[in-house]
């Protein structure tokens, strides 16, 4: 199986379910704190560049949900600066395959299964992206849904 670097928000119930799905499939994880990682323009773009800029953002982050931050109103440079300054706004998890260096953003189960493989399960939802409820461990109100 694969060893993945898994950038997460500590305490997030959604990230816990995502980790469990990866580990059930036999993958090993090196967990890192997304909020305290030393992000630079280049390190963040290594994950985000293949995606449309609006998909770089965690749509359930409080500042986005409130309308204070509107990703579509930003250019790429402003978006990167904002994400580096406020990592809570980054769509998560960010994952890197240590074998081939490939990277993935978010946790759509079909996409993750195609990327590194997941155990087939009739019980697994189509997407494990996001927290399951506001009462779970994502205490900041950062409960994101699939983008």
From TrEMBL:
Coiled coil: none annotated. SUPFAM superfamilies: Thioredoxin-like (SSF52833). InterPro entries: Arsenate_reductase-like, Nase-assoc, Thioredoxin-like_sf. Residues 124-147 are annotated as: Disordered. NCBIfam families: nitro_assoc (TIGR01616). Belongs to the ArsC family. This is ArsC/Spx/MgsR family protein.
């Amino acid at each position: 199986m694969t060893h993945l670097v898994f950038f997460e928000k500590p305490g997030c119930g959604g990230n816990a379910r995502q980790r469990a799905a990866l580990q059930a499939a036999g993958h090993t994880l090196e967990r890192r704190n997304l909020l305290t990682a030393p992000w630079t323009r280049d390190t963040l773009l290594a994950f985000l560049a293949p995606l449309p800029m609006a998909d770089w953002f965690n749509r359930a982050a409080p500042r986005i949900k409130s309308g204070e931050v509107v990703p579509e109103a930003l250019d790429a440079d402003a978006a990167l600066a904002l994400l580096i300054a406020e990592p809570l706004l980054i769509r998560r998890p960010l994952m890197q395959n240590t074998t081939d260096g490939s990277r993935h953003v978010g946790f759509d189960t079909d996409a993750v299964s195609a990327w590194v493989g997941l155990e087939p399960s009739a019980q697994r939802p189509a997407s494990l992206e996001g927290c399951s409820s506001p009462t779970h461990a994502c205490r900041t109100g950062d409960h994101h849904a699939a983008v």
